[in-house]
Write a structure and sequence with these properties.
Number of helices: 7
Number of strands: 10
Distance between the termini: 48 Å
Mean pLDDT: 94
Low-confidence stretches: 4-11
Largest sheet: 6 strands, antiparallel
Helix content: 25-40%
Structural class: alpha+beta
Order of helices and strands: HEEHEHEEEHHEHEEHE
Length: about 250
C-alpha cells in the first residue's frame, strides 16, 4: 500500500533528513542546509519544476554570512517558503548562504502553483520558477562532496557527546576503526598512522577481514576535529580500507 500511495503522489517521495555543513561558492565561505533525503532521491519525476527564492542580506562584514540579527528573518523566510511549497504539492530541498546572498530551493509538480510569499521584514525575496526535471541544481550544486560528508559524520558524534555534557576541548583517547581485505594493506595504513602519533593494532576479524584500531589523545572540538578525521580517513582509503568512524568516552 505504501508504494501505491507514493506512486499516486499521496506520500512523500523521501524521508526528510536535514544536515548543515560548510562549503564554498566562488571561493567564498558557504553554509548549506540541505535535505539529504531529497538529495538521495533526486531526481523525483513528479516534481519537474524548480522553485528558487533568492535574497540578499547585509551580513557580518567579513565572512559573508548573515549578521546575528538577520537570522530570525531568514528562518522566517525558510518557514514561509516551506509552507507555500507544501500548499502547491511541492517540497523544500535546501538553502545556501554565501557572500551576502541566500537561495532557498524547492521543487513543484507540473501543475502546482504556490501562493505569494508573505511579507517578511528585513528580506526582499525574488522568486523564479524553471523547468528542471533532472534536478540538475540538486545534483550539481547541493549534493555534499566527500569532505562535507565527513564533516556531517563527525557532527553526528559531536552532537551525541554534547547531549551528554561533553567538554569537547578536553583531550581524551579517540579511537578510530577501519577494515581491510588483507594484512599487508592494513599494516601499510597502520605504519602511516603510527608516524602521525597513533597507537595502532591490526587483528584478524571474525569475518576474515583485518581490523585496524588507531588511538590518539586529541580534543574533539570542530573544526580541528575534521582535519584529524579527514586525514585518518584518507590514509585508510588510500590503502583500500573501509573507514568506520571514531568514538571516545564522554569528558565532563
Amino acid at each position: 500500500m505504501g508504494l501505491l500511495r507514493r506512486l499516486l503522489g499521496r506520500e512523500p517521495a523521501w524521508q526528510e533528513r536535514w544536515a548543515v555543513y560548510p562549503g564554498e561558492v566562488g571561493g567564498r565561505l558557504a553554509m548549506y542546509n540541505i535535505d539529504l533525503g531529497a538529495v538521495e532521491a533526486a531526481p523525483v519525476a513528479r516534481f519537474p519544476r524548480r522553485f528558487d527564492v533568492d535574497f540578499a542580506y547585509t551580513g557580518d562584514g567579513a565572512s559573508g554570512m548573515p549578521a546575528a540579527e538577520e537570522l530570525a528573518s531568514i528562518h522566517e523566510l525558510d518557514a514561509a517558503v516551506r509552507q507555500v511549497l507544501r500548499s502547491a504539492g511541492g517540497a523544500l530541498v535546501g538553502r545556501v548562504l554565501s557572500d551576502n546572498h541566500g537561495r532557498i530551493t524547492g521543487y513543484l509538480p507540473a501543475d502546482g502553483t504556490p501562493p505569494p510569499l508573505p511579507a517578511i521584514p528585513g528580506v526582499t525575496p525574488e522568486i523564479s520558477v524553471a523547468s528542471d526535471p533532472g534536478w540538475t541544481r540538486v545534483r550539481e550544486e547541493l549534493t555534499p562532496d566527500a569532505w562535507q560528508r565527513n564533516i556531517m559524520d563527525d557532527n553526528q558524534v559531536v552532537q551525541e557527546l554534547e547531549a551528554h555534557g561533553d567538554r569537547l576541548t578536553a583531550p581524551r583517547a579517540v579511537e578510530f576503526l577501519a577494515y581491510f581485505p588483507d594484512p599487508d594493506r592494513a599494516e601499510s595504513s597502520a605504519q602511516e598512522l603510527r608516524e602521525d602519533g597513533f597507537a595502532v593494532t591490526v587483528e584478524r576479524g571474525d569475518e576474515g577481514d583485518f581490523v585496524l584500531q588507531a588511538i590518539r589523545r586529541d580534543s574533539v572540538e570542530p573544526p580541528a576535529l575534521h582535519e584529524v578525521t579527514w586525514k585518518v580517513r584518507g590514509i585508510v582509503e588510500r590503502h583500500d580500507g573501509i573507514y568506520d568512524g571514531w568514538g571516545c568516552m564522554v569528558q565532563t
